[in-house]
Design brief:
single chain, alpha/beta, FAD/NAD(P)-binding domain, 3 domains, 5-stranded parallel β-sheet, 33% strand
C-alpha cells in the first residue's frame, strides 16, 4: 500500500510528487509511460520556460531537469516505461510493463497528471487524399528535436496553437520553407509573444478566418487548397488558393488525456474535457486529485507547476489527516463570454485568504473588465486592457468576496468597457 501514486512524470507529476514529499508523506510512486521523466518538456528545446516560477529563462529540458533533480534527492520511487491501464474508485491502479508484467497497486491517494494529447486529422475531417507528410505539430517537434529527422521542406501549418507557431520557427531554422500558417478562427489560438517571435520575425504569413479544404497528393502531400471561411466557419466559394507543399503540420487543439478519468468515474467538465476539481484540485472522488493539462490546457508550464504543487500538498494533507466534512461549497459558473473556469467548485472552509480561478474567453477584448457576480450582483471587478482566447486568464478571489456568495453560485463574466 503506497501513500500516494502520481500518474504521469511530466512537469505536473514531478511538481505534485515533490510537494507531497515536502509536506510529509514519503511512500510516493511516480508512474511514467515514457522511458524518461520530463514529459513534453524533453522535446521543447526552445527557451521561455520558468520566467514566473524560477524567475529566469530556461529551455524545456532545463526546466524538467530542475524537478528531476529534486525527485532524485528524495525517496520518491519511479516506474518508467510503464502503462497505467485502469484506475478504480477504490484507488487500485492497474499497470503493466515488460519487467514486472501486470500489477495492481494499491494506494491511499492518487494524483492524475497525464497531460494532454493533440487533435489529429481524423478529428477535424479534412477532405482529400491520404498521402504521407501530414503530422501533428507535436509529433513533428519530437522528430526534429529528439530524433533528428527533418519532416519536410515546404510546409503549411494548419492552426495557430503555440506548438504550431513554435514549429513554424523551428522548421525555418532547420532550412525548411514555411509558406503560411492557416487559422480557421478570426484570432490566433497562441500566445501573442509566439506570434511575434515565430511568425512576424520570420515573415511567415498568418491567414485568419481560413482553413484547408483539400489535401492533394498520391504518395506524399503535393498541394493543399486553402479557402476563406464565413462566420459559421464554412468555406466561401471563390476564395480558394492552392499552395504547393510537401508537408502539413496540424496545430488544431489539445485534449486532456481523460480515459483514466472516465474509467475511474470522475465527474468530467464537457467544456475542458477534464475532471471537475475543487479549490485544492481534488476531484469528485475523495483522495483522487488532478493537475496540469489533464484538467485544462495551460499556456505556461509555470502555471502547471503552481497548480500541481497545490494538488500534491492537498494529497499529503488527505493522507496524513482525517478527512473533514465540507459542505459550504460554491459552484463557479461560466458567465458572458467565458468558455470555462477552473476550479469548478470552491469550498469556503478550505480557503484561508484567497483562491485563484483560471478561465478563458471566447472572443478578443480590448478595454474590458472581469466581473464576479452572484445572483446578478457584482461582487468584484477587475479592468483589463487586452484579453484573447489564446491566453489563459486568472482572477484572485478573496475570502471576503467568497463570504458574500449566499446561494452557492458564483459567476465569472467579461464585458467591454464603454468608451465615452
Amino acid at each position: 500500500m503506497h501513500d500516494l501514486i502520481v500518474i504521469g512524470g511530466g512537469p505536473a507529476g514531478l511538481a505534485a510528487a515533490v510537494a507531497a514529499y515536502e509536506n510529509g508523506i514519503k511512500d510516493i510512486l511516480i508512474i511514467e509511460r515514457d522511458q524518461r521523466l520530463g514529459g513534453i518538456l524533453n522535446q521543447c528545446i526552445h527557451n521561455g520556460f520558468g520566467l514566473h516560477y524560477f524567475k529566469e529563462e530556461l529551455t524545456g529540458p532545463e526546466y524538467a531537469a530542475r524537478f528531476i533533480k529534486k525527485i532524485q534527492e528524495t525517496d520518491v520511487k519511479v516506474l518508467l516505461d510503464t502503462m497505467v491501464l485502469e484506475v478504480s474508485e477504490e484507488k487500485e491502479v492497474h499497470v503493466v510493463n515488460k519487467e514486472q508484467g501486470y500489477q495492481i497497486l494499491k494506494t491511499k491517494a492518487i494524483v492524475f497528471a497525464m497531460g494532454c494529447r493533440e487533435r489529429t486529422r481524423g478529428a477535424i475531417g479534412i477532405a482529400g487524399s491520404r498521402p504521407a507528410g501530414v503530422f501533428t505539430a507535436g509529433a513533428a517537434q519530437r522528430y526534429v528535436n529528439m530524433e533528428g529527422y527533418l519532416v519536410g521542406k515546404k510546409v503549411i501549418i494548419l492552426g495557430s496553437g503555440d506548438i504550431g507557431l513554435i514549429m513554424a520557427r523551428r522548421m525555418t531554422l532547420e532550412g525548411a520553407e514555411v509558406l503560411a500558417c492557416i487559422e480557421v478562427m478570426p484570432y490566433s489560438g497562441g500566445l501573442t509573444r509566439n506570434i511575434v517571435q515565430c511568425l512576424d520575425d520570420y515573415d511567415i504569413p498568418l491567414y485568419l478566418s481560413h482553413t484547408i479544404t483539400e489535401i492533394r497528393g498520391k504518395n506524399r502531400v503535393e498541394q493543399v487548397v486553402v479557402a476563406e471561411v464565413d462566420e459559421k466557419r464554412q468555406p466561401v466559394a471563390g476564395t480558394e488558393q492552392t499552395f504547393d507543399c510537401d508537408t502539413i503540420l496540424l496545430s488544431v487543439g489539445l485534449i486532456p488525456e481523460n480515459e483514466l478519468s472516465r474509467d475511474a468515474n470522475l465527474d468530467l467538465d464537457l467544456k475542458t474535457n477534464g475532471p471537475f476539481v475543487y479549490e485544492n484540485m481534488e476531484t469528485s472522488i475523495p483522495g483522487i486529485f488532478a493537475c496540469g493539462n489533464v484538467v485544462h490546457v495551460h499556456d505556461l508550464v509555470d502555471f502547471v507547476t503552481e497548480e500541481s504543487i497545490k494538488a500534491g500538498t492537498a494529497a499529503a494533507t488527505y493522507v496524513l489527516e482525517e478527512e473533514k466534512e465540507l459542505s459550504n461549497a460554491i459552484s463557479v459558473k461560466n458567465g458572458d463570454h467565458v468558455t470555462y473556469a477552473v476550479p469548478q467548485t470552491i469550498r469556503k472552509e478550505n480557503i484561508d485568504r484567497r483562491v485563484e480561478v483560471f478561465f478563458r474567453v471566447n472572443q478578443v477584448f480590448d478595454d474590458s473588465q472581469i466581473l464576479i457576480k452572484s445572483k446578478g450582483e457584482v461582487l468584484a471587478k477587475q479592468k483589463k486592457s487586452y484579453i484573447v482566447p489564446g491566453e489563459m486568464e486568472k482572477v484572485k478571489l478573496s475570502k471576503k468576496v467568497l463570504e458574500k456568495v449566499t446561494d452557492g453560485d458564483l459567476e465569472i463574466c467579461v464585458e467591454e468597457v464603454s468608451k465615452r
